[in-house]
């Protein structure tokens, strides 16, 4: 993955103080980030994915020597940890090694896997394992962008897998990842309920 996301000016960074992270409103702000000038960490063209709101001109990035344009050491570490986890996944490893043992992972919506999972192992057992049981080719990520603000990294990515009935499993995800010491301690994941529900109803686990 190339590039480092510019820290947005203060005028674009104050939204999280008024909008709770993990809320639907926060997701709307996140997905509107590119249109409002928030620059992603990833050069999306390198992954063959169109940037979000590519037809809307982005605001100029802050100059490198401007205070608002510099990432803090904490932000650099958090961004690097998530970037490396995606790179490990792309290479055939697991992204979820970055989760702390007591990480809390919330999946929004009403799909069969929606809910809050307390602990890395519960998440792996009750979400990742049942998903893997329904796929002949597990999901591989194509990252659209990574953004960082303090201890929080925002990730938008496309996932492609193949179900055991031969049909593609394609999904676009938005994740809000709260970090501590290079590990994810809390996450909120947004996805398409219909895609998950269709897979669960169409392909029984262990088929």
Automatic annotation (TrEMBL):
Keyword Repressor appears in the UniProt entry: no
Keyword ATP-binding assigned: no
Gene3D superfamilies: 3.10.450.50
Annotated keywords: Plasmid
Domain SnoaL-like: 94-186
Region (Disordered): 53-75
Protein name per the record: Nuclear transport factor 2 family protein
InterPro entries: NTF2-like_dom_sf, SnoaL-like
Highest taxon of source: Bacteria
Protein's organism: Streptomyces cadmiisoli
Annotated PANTHER family: BLR2505 PROTEIN
């Amino acid at each position: 993955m190339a590039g480092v996301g510019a820290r947005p000016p203060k005028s674009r960074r104050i939204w999280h103080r008024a909008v709770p992270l993990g809320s639907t409103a926060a997701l709307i702000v996140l997905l509107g980030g590119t249109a409002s000038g928030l620059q992603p960490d990833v050069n999306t063209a390198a992954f063959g994915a169109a940037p979000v709101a590519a037809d809307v001109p982005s605001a100029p990035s802050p100059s490198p020597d401007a205070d608002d344009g510099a990432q803090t050491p904490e932000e650099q570490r958090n961004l690097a940890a998530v970037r490396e986890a995606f790179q490990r996944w792309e290479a055939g490893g697991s992204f979820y090694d970055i989760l702390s043992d007591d990480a809390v992972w919330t999946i929004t919506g009403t799909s069969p896997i929606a809910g809050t999972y307390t602990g890395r192992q519960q998440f792996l057992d009750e979400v990742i394992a049942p998903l893997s049981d329904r796929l002949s080719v597990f999901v591989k990520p194509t990252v659209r962008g990574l953004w960082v603000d303090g201890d929080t990294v925002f990730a938008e990515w496309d996932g492609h897998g193949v179900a055991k009935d031969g049909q593609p499993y394609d999904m676009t995800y938005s994740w809000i990842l709260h970090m501590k010491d290079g590990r994810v301690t809390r996450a909120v994941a947004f996805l398409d309920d219909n895609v998950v529900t269709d897979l669960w109803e169409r392909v029984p686990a262990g088929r």
